[in-house]
């Protein structure tokens, strides 16, 4: 008859509970897994399946009582690490949303906003369109596989520690936040430049023909030019978006490594 001691049973539960907490932290934030339209049961079931796969892989660690202060702090620590890793990929989609928002406002579609179930706020139509394109590329390029692989590798680079020293680099995570503005501006520059030239041309036309009602035709021209430019550059957006995904995965993989020291 097989028998288990209470200590062995607690060790098994802890070996599963702590990786599960980190996995659920990532799923709660990282798109598209963290989308609010996905039922909570599906997220929890998916997290349990991933945790069952990950549980045998982490290196051995000293066990602690889950009900003790140290055990609760480790539980919170793993959840924060998962949130941080998922936040990296969330910033990638935030940069794409920003590019769509800037492009939509330049086109004159700032008023065309819809309810976004992910952020529970209003976003522009162009922004939602680019996010849908990025989501399709996310799955077609197997970025979700790379995301889960980076999560599994994190248990080696950021091991579960009972000393409350996670080794998680929050500074690198903060630096990654600047990609929202850098990548968002780079993705929207072609459309902004084309519409800038269009507005300059309309200004010259107004000066040449003052009787022309610029407010009557300017709005329709900028929207038309904006959609034409968006359709023209859409096939070329896959490469910068793919590079952005790759940078996000690399950032997730290096969150457990200390940044190089800079010589003043």
Mind explaining what this structure looks like?
With 264 residues, this protein is mainly alpha-helical. The protein has one domain (6-253). Helices cover 69% and strands 3% of the residues. The chain has 9 helices and 2 strands. The chain has helices at residues 6-29, 40-54, 69-107, 125-140, 143-157, 170-176, 179-208, 214-233, 238-253, and strands at 113-116, 121-124. A two-stranded antiparallel ribbon has the order 1-2. A hairpin with a 4-residue loop joins strand 1 and strand 2 (121-124). The longest helix is centred in the middle third of the chain and has 39 residues, at 69-107. It starts with 5 loop residues before the first helix and ends in an 11-residue tail after the last helix.
Features:
two-stranded antiparallel ribbon, 2 strands, FliR, 69% helix, disordered C terminus, mainly alpha
Please tell me how large the radius of gyration is: 24 Å
State the helix count: 9
Shape: elongated
Q: First CA to last CA: what distance?
A: 67 Å
Q: Stretches where pLDDT falls below 50 for ≥5 residues?
A: 259-264
Tally of discrete structural domains: 1
- H/E order of the elements? HHHEEHHHHHH
Coarse structural class: mainly alpha
Give the oligomeric state: single chain
Count of DSSP strands: 2
Describe the biggest sheet?
2 strands, antiparallel
As a percent range, the share of helical residues equals 55-70%
Mean pLDDT score: 80
Strand order in space, largest sheet: 1-2
Share in β-strands: under 5%
Family: Belongs to the FliR/MopE/SpaR family.
Function: Role in flagellar biosynthesis.
Subcellular location: Cell membrane; Bacterial flagellum basal body
GO biological process, one term: protein targeting
């Amino acid at each position: 008859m097989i028998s288990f001691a209470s200590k062995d049973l607690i060790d098994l539960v802890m070996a599963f509970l702590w990786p599960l907490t980190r996995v659920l932290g990532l799923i709660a934030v990282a798109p598209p897994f963290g989308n609010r339209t996905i039922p909570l049961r599906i997220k929890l079931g998916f997290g349990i399946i991933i945790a069952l796969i990950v549980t045998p892989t982490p290196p051995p660690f000293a066990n602690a009582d889950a009900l003790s202060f140290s055990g609760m702090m480790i539980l919170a620590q793993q959840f924060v690490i998962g949130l941080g890793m998922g936040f990296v990929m969330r910033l990638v989609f935030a940069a794409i949303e920003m590019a769509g928002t800037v492009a939509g406002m330049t086109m004159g579609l700032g008023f065309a906003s819809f309810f976004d179930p992910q952020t529970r706020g209003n976003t522009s139509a162009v922004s939602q369109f680019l996010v849908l394109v990025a989501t399709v590329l996310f799955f077609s390029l197997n970025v979700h596989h790379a995301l889960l692989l980076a999560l599994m590798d994190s248990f080696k680079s950021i091991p579960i520690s009972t000393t409350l020293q996670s080794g998680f680099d929050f500074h690198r995570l903060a630096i990654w936040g600047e990609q929202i503005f850098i990548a968002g501006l780079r993705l929207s520059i072609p459309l902004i430049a084309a519409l800038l030239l269009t507005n300059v041309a309309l200004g010259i036309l107004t000066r040449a023909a003052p009787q022309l009602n610029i407010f009557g035709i300017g709005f329709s021209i900028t929207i038309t030019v904006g959609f034409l430019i968006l359709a023209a550059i859409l096939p070329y957006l896959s490469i910068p978006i793919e590079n952005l995904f790759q940078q996000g995965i690399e950032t997730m993989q290096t969150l457990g490594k200390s940044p190089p020291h800079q010589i003043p």
